[in-house]
Amino acid sequence: MINVLPVTLERNGVRLEPLGPQHADGLRAAARDGELWKLRITSVPEPEQTESYIATALEMRPSRLAFAVIDAATDAVIGTTSYHDIVPAIDRAEIGYTWYALSRQRCHVNTTCKLMLLTHAFETLGCALVGFRTDNYNYRSQAAIERLGAKKDGVLRHHAIRRDGTVRDTVMYSIARGEWPEVKAQLNYLLAKER
Known about the structure:
Shape: globular
Strand content: 25-35%
Number of helices: 5
Largest sheet: 8 strands, mixed
Number of strands: 8
Strand order of the largest sheet: 1-2-3-4-5-6-8-7
Radius of gyration: 16 Å
């Protein structure tokens, strides 16, 4: 049975550390880089809601473990990601609540974060399966998840409320333990090309 405890992970100049109140200013700055809260298909907090966003993430433990994504060279907060919907009885967790400052998108950061989180999930925690989910209209996120090597499980229709009050369909993906060696090889290959 998996036991997801706070941990700090670091690789390729990116550090994941447990999200806390000390990250509020940095997270607010990351969200302002691209005014990400204006995207209707994400859950990025508006600047004045950053402390509440962090508090909610902390209140969700133990079913969610949120991380601040840090540029290790500058200690700047560049985004956030989480393990969530953690189900120890069946060794399952999901990775999500992920967003990065606009200036850090489409580079090695997301691949590095996913490689660290998946490695920890499969090789340390002993997960049998790691899931991902995204808005049916978030095509960039779907492409990024598929690029990781995750398999599309299906679509949960009329599943969650967006910030604008509309109801989204949720696209579900997963990677099973037996698929991890090939996915890991692919992520390392992609990182070698991105760096």
